[in-house]
Amino acid sequence: MHTVLAPNLSVGPTWLPLAVVSVFVAAGWFAYSIDRQRPAQLLGHATSASLTFFMLASVLLLVFNVVHKQEAPVDLLRSAAALWVTNVIVFASWYWRLDAGGPHGRNQMTGHEKGSFLFPQMSLTDEKLAAMGYRAWSPGFIDYLFLAFNTSTALSPADTPALSRWSKLLMMTQALISLTVIVLLAARAVNML
Hints:
- The protein has one domain (2-192).
- Helix 2 packs antiparallel against helix 3 (73-98).
- By secondary structure, it is mostly helical.
- The protein is built from 7 helices and no strands.
- 27% of the residues are buried.
């Protein structure tokens, strides 16, 4: 997504985020392949943190460029859309990585009692889950992507409440970023009229 941003909205050269993320992903994959779970998990967090940094820096540059009217409307719209989609993906990754010990931790648990999100499936009995074809249900990345998408569109959780303080703070941050991008676009559109 970083490559479709207007040049003034990128931190450093356009290849920099891809290079940083590639190094973390490759190192994380290697650590995982030799069964080093903790280093792989930390490298995954470093990947998400670097993506978050580049996204936040670009959002701040978007605010600056809208205020100073330095970007063409088409470039602004394309960049804002890319940042909005990046916001959804980055926060879905954070939720997936942090909830109940991350994907590896969730796979080792029999339930989801230590989770920071209450998914609708968690309120169903084992019999109901079995009748629906979900014997051992556990949230996957798509569940967290749906949560992040709803947070960015509705600016609130739709069907999955946040239970822990860290998850509430992350959801507030995600909604604030989404609201900033949407309000800036609306303000710029009104200004062009």
